[in-house]
Design brief:
- Helix content is 28%, strand content 37%.
- It is an alpha+beta fold.
- A hairpin with a 5-residue loop joins strand 2 (77-87) and strand 3.
- The model has no long low-confidence stretch (mean pLDDT 85).
Length: 196
């Protein structure tokens, strides 16, 4: 009479199949988790970039023509005369004319912002005291549209230095972790107020 049950070979084959299916399931779940984490990070980076671009938009909307502070810009930075909020140590705050500066800090991979009221511009060092506006910045390029002299033709340029404000500023961003899957690009153009 034969004994009922499984042979040793049948048990080994069954355990091997269970281990193979379990290993495949774990690999699929781990891959899905990595993709989910990557998209979470990408969402946070995109949100931070949008907040930074919104801050730039607000400062450009507050741009003012002021003969003692010129709008100056290059492909990696710009300074604009603008109405800024100044908080005083004694308490309270006031809107004043001043200068807002944006610049790429390549050492830390970020876009920095600083501001100073007109009365403090001589002492102000924009690149030493700034707020990070966009982090994980790979590259940035500013372009300016308008005419830098009265009665000249408006055109796009990578440099601006004039008492006249440009009509528009274009920002091209490349941000992320530097990998192929984790690098994103974005471009946005802002019109400046028609105050000349």
């Amino acid at each position: 009479m034969k004994a009922k049950g499984f042979t040793l070979i049948e048990l080994l084959v069954a355990m091997s199949l269970i281990a193979l299916v379990s290993g495949a399931a774990v690999a699929v779940l781990a891959g899905g988790l990595r993709v989910w984490e990557r998209y979470q990070v990408a969402g946070v980076q995109t949100d931070m970039m949008r907040l930074g671009v919104e801050q730039i938009r607000k400062d450009l909307v507050n741009a003012r023509r002021f003969d003692l502070i010129h709008f100056e810009g290059s492909s990696s930075q710009f300074q604009v005369p603008a109405t800024i909020q100044v908080d005083y140590e004694e308490g309270g705050s006031l809107q004043e004319l001043g200068q807002v500066s944006y610049f790429a800090d390549r050492r830390y991979g970020c876009l920095g912002r600083s501001q100073a009221p007109f009365s403090e511009l001589k002492r102000h060092r924009a690149k030493s005291d700034y707020t990070v506006v966009i982090d994980d910045l790979q590259n940035i390029k500013f372009s300016y549209f308008g005419s830098q002299k009265e009665e000249s033709e408006a055109k796009w340029t990578s440099r601006w230095k004039s008492h006249l404000l440009p009509q528009a500023v274009k920002i091209e961003l490349q941000y992320g972790d530097g990998t192929t899957e984790g690098t994103y690009t974005s471009a946005v153009t802002f019109s400046l107020p028609g105050i000349q």
